[in-house]
Amino acid sequence: MDIDDLKIFEAVARLRSMNRAASELNTVQSNVTSRIKALEDDIGCALFYRHSRGVLVTAAGERLLPYASEAARLLADARAAARDDGAPRGVLTIGSLETTAALRLAPLLARYAGAYPDVDLVLRTGTTRELIDDVLARRVDGAYVCGPAAHPELCEDTVFREELVILASPSAESLQTVLRGAGVRLVVLRAGCSYRQMLEALLARRGIPVRRILEFGTLEAIFGCVAAGLGITLLPRALVGPVCATGRLSVHTLPPADAMVETVFIRERGRFASSALRAFVDSAGGSLPPAEAA
Q: How far is CA 277 from CA 86, 100, 119, 156, 254, in A?
């Protein structure tokens, strides 16, 4: 067994096909098949069930898979560490909630881009759930999400605290007016948005039923629908200040226990942190422990 065998095994297990694995690995199917057969002979048990549409992982294969995945990650980290001479360069992909990007990140990103011109900085927005998945799948190097993430494979640092408020149409005179009646309609971002989950939980604690959920992909669409009286939403106060100043929306303060939320920066625990990532964290006013930075 060697690292190439485990790499092939991981690809076949993930794609459930010898042919698709061969295509991803830029080799021929016969090579993948022979390597898997040799690996099974070496271990002494079958790793896949073969069928007409592909393969399924056996119980033995399921036990091997975490080690194969970890070996691939360690190999990628070893390659990155060897190539990193301490000068920030290359691609750095940072994930962020759309609200955090709009509120907080523009000055930081501008400062970082000016200080490190050899880094190709990419910003990817998403919901907290999506961004956690992106960090774990290594599609992003780190991400700003609504905390706490509380995931055993992630480390997190609190970077901002936000006050959340309920937004409603201009005619809503008070929070009691907004929440009374047979139920409310929510105007929210897609599933996985932390603010959406918090609003649903807040209403559930108060015994207020949700009549309908209207889901939109942009903040501006949410503002427009709330202003038109289609429902309510929950967002950081700092984000909605300029919008509310025009009279388009009414803002309703929540009790502190419901209002305050932390934004945390997450990254994969134990993953090699490139010079570009270390410089980004430093620019944001944080730091990486020596064991993770080296």
A: 11, 18, 10, 14, 36
- CB–CB of 254/166 below 8 Å? yes
- The model carries a pTM of 0.75
Range of the domain at 71: 3-83
The SS3 assignment for 262 reads strand
CA nearest 12: which of 70, 74, 54, 40?
54
Are residue 142 and residue 166 in the same domain, yes or no? no
Alpha carbons 117 and 2: distance in angstroms, whole number: 39
Find the CATH number of the domain harbouring 22.
Answer: 1.10.10.10
Q: How many domains does the chain have?
A: 3
**102 DSSP 8-state letter:** I
Q: What is the pLDDT of residues 248-293, one digit of tens each?
A: 788 888 888 888 989 999 999 888 899 999 999 988 876 555 434 4
| 213 and 167 in a common domain | yes
**Quick one: 150 and 276 in the same domain?**
yes
Q: What is the mean pLDDT of residues 34-45?
A: 92
First to last CA, the chain: 28
User: What is the tens place of the pLDDT at every residue in 143-183?
Assistant: 999 888 888 999 999 888 889 999 988 888 788 877 775 56
Is pLDDT above 90 for 64? yes
Cα gap 179→190, rounded to integer Å: 22
Please tell me whether residues 64 and 208 are part of one structural domain: no
Helices within the chain (DSSP H only): 3-15, 18-24, 29-43, 59-83, 98-100, 106-115, 128-136, 175-179, 194-205, 219-227, 237-245, 256-259, 275-283, 290-293
- Exposure on the CB side of residue 230, measured as CA atoms within 13 A: 16
What pLDDT is attached to residue 245?
62
What is the residue type of 65? Answer: L
